[in-house]
Structure prediction request, 171 residues.
Amino acid sequence: MTLNNRNYISYFLLAIIVLAVPAVSFADVGIGTNKSGGYPHEIKGVKIHTSIGNHDIKFYHFEFKLTPDNTVLANDERLIRKGYSRNPTNYRFGILDEHSINFTGYGQFQVFIPAGLFPLSKEEDGFMILRMPQTLSGEGRANHIKEKQDLYFEIKEMVESKAGANIMLWD
Prediction:
C-alpha cells in the first residue's frame, strides 16, 4: 500500500508506540524531535532503532506489518465482550469505526492487535490499540480526512476478506 503522505502512517505508528504501555514505561516513550540515531537491536525478531528526543525521551522506530491475522477491527465480538460499545459510559471504550462521528467528521478510527502478536508487548492477553488521530482543522482538512478514511477502508477490506495486500507501518 502506498499513501501520498507518509505522515498519516507515522502518526498511526506513533499511536501504537504511545499506547504500548505494558511493553515500555512512559519514561522510555514520548513525543519530540530526534537528536541522534541508535544502533538496531531486536525484540521478538523485529529490528528496533532507538533515538533520543527532547528531554532525553527515548523513541523506538520499527516496521510492523498489518495482516488479516494480526489486525482486529473495533466492532469485533472479542472487544465488545471486553466492554467496547457504540454508547459507552467511558469514552475510551467507544467503537471508532466508519459508523462513528469521529470517523465521518474527523477521520479518527482505531483497530487492534492481539497483544501476543505485537513485538513490544510483554503481555500475551488483551489487545494493543492502534488509533488514528483526529484532523480538527488546517489547510487541506477535507483531503486529510479522506486519506485517513481510505486507509481505514483498506485495512477493513484486508481483515474482512482475509486476503489483500499487507499494510506496512513504518516511522
